[in-house]
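Human: I'm a chemist; would you kindly supply sequence and structure tokens for a protein?

Assistant:
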Amino acid sequence: MKAQITIEFFVIFLALATISLFIFDVIKITDTSNVVDKTGLEARKIADTLAAAINNVYLSGDGTKVNLKLPQGLDKNKSYNLTVYPSEHLVRIVWEGYIYTSPILVGNISSSFMDEEIVLTNKGGKIEIT
């Protein structure tokens, strides 16, 4: 009788252990799907920062000047391409095959050069990026 109770206890314990391992494995899979793409968030932040700066310079009026420093690369020095499309009222960033756009208010923008450090100037409603 004692041996039978031990075997039943062992079988029940083994079944509960198997079920708990399955549950923890499912939780692990679900948890890894929530991992945030740090590079994507950083790219979006850069595009949104430039778009916000353009909008602020435009809304602040004639003569407003803002200096903006952009990072040389994304997370782990991944390269990106940042472009302003005035006719579409967009700032677009492209990295590793991904694209993100951020809206801007003004379509009257001229850009001579975009480097790590840029200056945004409102000259009579026209935004100059140098």
